[in-house]
Write a sequence for this structure.
């Protein structure tokens, strides 16, 4: 298990942002090359965004499953090497190496995976079939419903599950048996894709761990309405007789938005979950730790109290705070699994009950340097005010890049940041990275965009917007060069977050 109190540094980069020939980053050769780059720079953490399938707006935070892996991340090279897939022919116009065109990439890659599934059925040996069968049994608690859901979604051309035939949306046993017989090959396809995902991620994680690099996952707090999770267990959510949410998730109005944010996710029926000793959540956390060494829980404050918005309300203004299970949930998880390595995303409106919940279980919180310079020297996000139990970032995937932040920040904030960080427009990213590393925070993590000193055009996501340039960013190796990794290694080593040997100095006086 990763030690959350040990000084370390790492890089935030989503799998889809990796280079590679097939239109989107995946678990292929460039993922292993990136691990090597991290290790050479003394980095001990690779933080990912959610690896679940994408949803509306290509977002990994609105997935059709809280348990499944994204088909887009399955690398094609291992399938070719296994003899199940012919070497793919790229579209005549090719793919963009620096952005993901989801509309083109998704159908092309699914077609490749379907060919690979056919090849596996015809060519895999007995041991390979046995390995997949054993994995399917092990993961059946979520896999059976997910594969059936995806087969039905395919048959209904993407129509949401609450619009399916009554017997299917109500999960009548006779109707489901009929589908399992009729669509057996389609169900097997989705199981095959998930087995490939898990197998490839397991190999990559083992390689990273062997290079002393831990994988940090990301767990969204809520699930999507159109999801296998909601269809399989609608009683766990606050839905009406027509399976529509009566209340939805979001956050109240604040300085960032006078209308708040109406996310629209169905809210949990926490009492029903408590009656089952939070078994669904325990299973989800166990699954997360099969795929990562540590994980961040998004919107952690929602476990203390959450903003409940009437489903009929078009904005978040009419919402209200409702208590959540808090300690009871995490005590149930720990009874089943022991101490769990969790990072709490404790940004936004944080009240004493959130802090008490976080600290009771020893979950490190988050500090964002871009938020630190709008007030005076008492601001909690300034490094001199940190305790050790936190993770510091220049910014996250939801923020602008460090250089983009500088370009758009008010003059007062730039002046304060320049004085505090001894940096300016040309090196603000290194100023933030150095300040994060020199702080007492146990972990310091940097978006790759900041390590490379990139501007706003390389931002990953703009919260509250759909489509556009969200989630599409990729890098290629020509953007990296030798210098960013060398400097990152020096700063990390000088601050005790990487091997001292990276400085090229003897550790003896």
């Amino acid at each position: 298990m990763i030690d959350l109190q040990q000084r370390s540094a790492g890089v935030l980069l989503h799998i889809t942002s990796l280079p590679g020939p097939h239109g989107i980053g995946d678990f292929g050769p460039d993922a292993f090359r990136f691990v090597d780059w991290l290790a050479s720079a003394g980095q001990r953490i690779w933080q990912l965004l959610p690896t679940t399938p994408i949803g509306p707006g290509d977002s990994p935070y609105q997935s059709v499953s809280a348990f499944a892996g994204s088909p887009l991340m399955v690398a094609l090279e291992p399938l070719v090497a296994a003899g199940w897939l012919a070497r793919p022919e790229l579209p005549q116009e090719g793919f963009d190496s620096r952005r993901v065109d989801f509309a083109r990439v998704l159908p092309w890659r699914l077609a490749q995976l379907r060919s690979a599934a056919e090849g596996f059925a015809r060519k895999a040996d007995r041991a390979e079939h046995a390995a997949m069968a054993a994995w399917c049994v092990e993961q059946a608690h979520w896999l059976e419903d997910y594969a059936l859901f995806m087969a039905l979604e395919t048959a209904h051309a993407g129509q949401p599950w609450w619009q399916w035939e009554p017997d299917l949306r109500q999960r009548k046993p006779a109707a489901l048996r009929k589908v399992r017989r009729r669509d057996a090959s389609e169900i097997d396809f989705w199981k095959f894709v998930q087995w490939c995902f898990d197998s490839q991620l397991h190999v990559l994680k083992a390689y990273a761990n062997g290079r002393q690099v831990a994988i940090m996952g990301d767990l969204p707090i809520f699930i999507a309405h159109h999801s296998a999770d909601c269809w399989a267990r609608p009683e766990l959510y606050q839905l009406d007789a027509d399976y529509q949410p009566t209340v939805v998730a979001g956050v109240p109005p604040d300085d960032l938005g006078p209308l708040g944010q109406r996310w629209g996710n169905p809210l949990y029926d926490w009492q029903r979950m408590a009656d089952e000793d939070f078994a669904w959540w325990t299973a989800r956390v166990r699954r997360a730790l099969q795929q990562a060494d540590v994980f961040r829980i998004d919107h952690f404050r929602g476990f203390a109290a959450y903003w409940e918005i009437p489903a009929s309300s078009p904005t978040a203004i009419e919402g209200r705070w409702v208590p959540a299970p808090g300690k009871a949930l995490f005590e149930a998880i720990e009874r089943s699994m022991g101490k769990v390595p969790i990072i709490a995303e404790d940004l936004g409106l944080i009240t004493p009950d959130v802090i008490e919940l976080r600290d009771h279980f020893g979950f490190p919180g988050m500090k964002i340097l871009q938020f630190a310079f709008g007030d005076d020297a008492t601001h909690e996000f300034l490094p001199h005010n940190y305790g050790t139990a936190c993770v510091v970032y220049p910014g996250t995937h939801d923020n602008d890049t460090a250089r983009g932040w500088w370009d758009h920040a008010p003059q007062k904030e730039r002046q304060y940041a320049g004085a505090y960080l001894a940096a300016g427009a040309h090196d603000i990213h290194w100023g933030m990275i150095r300040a994060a590393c020199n702080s007492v925070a146990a972990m310091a993590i940097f978006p790759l965009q900041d390590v490379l000193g990139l501007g706003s055009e390389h931002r990953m996501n703009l919260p509250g917007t759909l489509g556009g340039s969200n989630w599409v960013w990729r890098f290629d190796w020509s953007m990296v060069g030798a210098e960013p990794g060398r400097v990152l290694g020096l700063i990390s080593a000088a601050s005790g977050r990487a091997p001292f040997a990276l400085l090229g100095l003897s550790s003896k006086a």
